[in-house]
Amino acid sequence: MWSAVERFSVQGIQFVLSIIIARLVLPSEYGLIAMLGIFLAIAQSFVDSGFSNALIQKKDRTEVDFSTVFYFNILIALAVYGVLFISAPYIALFYREPELTAVTRWVGVNVVLSSFMLVQRTRLLINSDFRTMTKASLIAMIFSGAIGVVLAWLGYGVWALVAQSLGNSFLNVAMLWIFVAWTPKRSFSIDSFRELFAFGSKLLVGGLLHTIYLNLYTLVIGRFFTSTQVGYFNRSQTFAVFPATNLTEIVNRVMYPALCERQGEEEVLIRTFFNYLRSTVFLVFPLMIGLAVLSGSLIEVLLTEKWLPAASLMSILCIAYMWDPLMHFNWQLLNVKGRSDLSLKAEIIKKTLAFFILFTSIPWGIHAICWGLLVYSLFDMITISFFVRKIYPFDLRRELMDIFPILIGSLFMGLCMYVSLRLTSIPVFRLAIGSVVGIFSYLFFCYLFKLKEFEFIKQIIKKV
Q1: What is the dihedral of CA 429, 433, 439, 443, to 10 degrees?
Q2: E strand or H helix that includes residue 108
Q3: How far apart are CA 156 and CA 25, in angstroms?
Q4: DSSP structure class, residue 306
Q5: Quick one: which of 55, 138, 398, 431 has the fewest CB in 10 Å?
Q6: Alpha-carbon gap, residue 102 to 91, rounded angstroms
Q7: Residue 116, Cα to own-chain centre: how many angstroms?
């Protein structure tokens, strides 16, 4: 529950703030920040280097391990920022946006700041202390968000987004150092580094491939299309990713340490995995299908008519990202058993196919690129399931059969919502009516067919 509170309170506030700022700045200004996404994400992947997962997976971790990771993170962060600083003019030249030189150098400071809090966040994850994480994240988000809104209102445009980002990182570091009673020892162990890197390096390469893939869309659109179209894609992707990614991450942060503790109890591990999977898609599927149906009304009400071209993109992306729990949870199953070699092989195969789909869809426009994302999601599930089957006694077919009733219930809900939207053409009423009809039709289906996830979630809420 605290994992959910931390994720949705912070992401929820960030989501609301992004809507407020989006109403105050132009789509092209949002597009400038979005263009840097791939460079910042790659830089952040190098800073982590898979060490966070390695520390969680290692059962006999020591204080020397934590200190070794801490110093390595800072060293890598400084090196990566140096590369970003030097590369800034070339990034601006690539996009034909001169302002990106200064923006890149300032936003890149986030990479250095984040290196000072990675170990603190990892310790909180190991101890499942999401309450402390919530306090730190909320304080940082509220104050940095206020800075961003004020600057956007004063007309600072893209620099309002830069200031919000830097403020959030700095305050997060400050709060975690205050709340987490840990300071690094004056020691760096080569043996510890080698052991952690042996596991983490494979996750680093796999993570880099995934990061490049996720952000390559913005880079490609920014290169072949206008910054306004980048803004439309970025906003539609933000709306589509919000429920699926956040719910998946909430569960994953609890699931991964829990499954790692059950490495030697395979039957219990598998049963726990399926409980997590079904409970997650029970929430994700209806949310994503509901958003796909309501995309036009939602964007018009929240972002005004100037953002309406993003609605059709958002509908496609919602269906693509609804499969996120299956893709991510199965990938983590490999890491639970320490098989980061298999997770790396899976990523190489998946991303090779992903790059092929992306580049073949470019000539057909942004909508085709979004449809390509949906096609990739299906291939991702098939590929990762092949590797999971090597070490676990189940496959994708069993997982799909388990969640099939939830998928049918979600599609039934979406059909009811689509029909209800014909009652009015006023966006705010369409949004309200569609939401109410969606909630009641889904709950009616769950009650009628007695879906066990419905009862399971009710029990969790009662226990809290």
Answers
A1: 170
A2: none
A3: 9
A4: G
A5: 398
A6: 11
A7: 21
For residue 406, give every residue at least 6 positions away whose Cβ sits within 8 Å of its Cβ, in sequence order, or none: 278, 281, 282, 285, 451, 453
Residue type at 209 in one-letter notation:
L
Residue identified by tokens 């395979």 is 266
404: left (phi over 0), alpha (psi -120 to 50) or beta: alpha
Which uninterrupted H or E stretch holds 16?
Answer: helix 2-24
d(CA 158, CA 166): 13
Read off φ and ψ for residue 20, nearest 5 degrees.
-60, -45
Residues 6+ apart with CB under 8 A from 85: 104, 105, 108
- Are 254 and 272 within 8 A, CB to CB? no
Q: Are 430 and 424 contacting, i.e. CB atoms less than 8 angstroms apart?
A: yes
CB 173 within 8 A of CB 141: no
Q: Are 34 and 216 in contact (CB under 8 A)?
A: no
Residue ranges in the chain modelled with pLDDT below 50: none
Q: What DSSP state is assigned to residue 189?
A: -
User: Which is nearest to 247 in space by CA: 310, 334, 323, 168?
Assistant: 323
pLDDT at 25: 67
Q: Write out the H or E segment, with its range, that includes residue 346.
A: helix 340-361
pTM of the complete model: 0.64
pLDDT in tens, 5-29: 666 666 677 767 777 776 776 666 6
Number of H helices, E strands in the chain: 20, 0
Q: Which residue has the tokens 């490999």?
A: 334
**Rg of the chain, C-alpha, whole Å:** 22
Q: Which amino acid is at 98?
A: P
Distance, CA of 258 to CA of 412 (rounded, Å): 34
Alpha carbon distance 309, 228 (integer Å): 10
Domain spans, the chain = 1-209, 225-464
Residue 30 CA to residue 435 CA, distance in Å, equals: 28
Within a 13 Å sphere around the CA of 67, how many CA atoms are in the beta-carbon half? Answer: 13
Q: Which residues contact 143 (CB under 8 A, 6 or more apart)?
A: 167, 171
Q: Which residue has the tokens 């970003």?
A: 84
Q: Which residue has the tokens 């799909």?
A: 400
Cα(286)–Cα(411) distance, integer angstroms: 8
Nearest alpha carbon to residue 351 among 212, 200, 204: 212
Residue with tokens 């730190």: 136
456: Cβ contacts below 8 Å, ≥ 6 apart: 275, 278, 279
Structure tokens at 241: 């990713």
Q: In sequence order, what DSSP letters do the residues of 423-436 get, joined into one string? A: G---HHHHHHHHHH
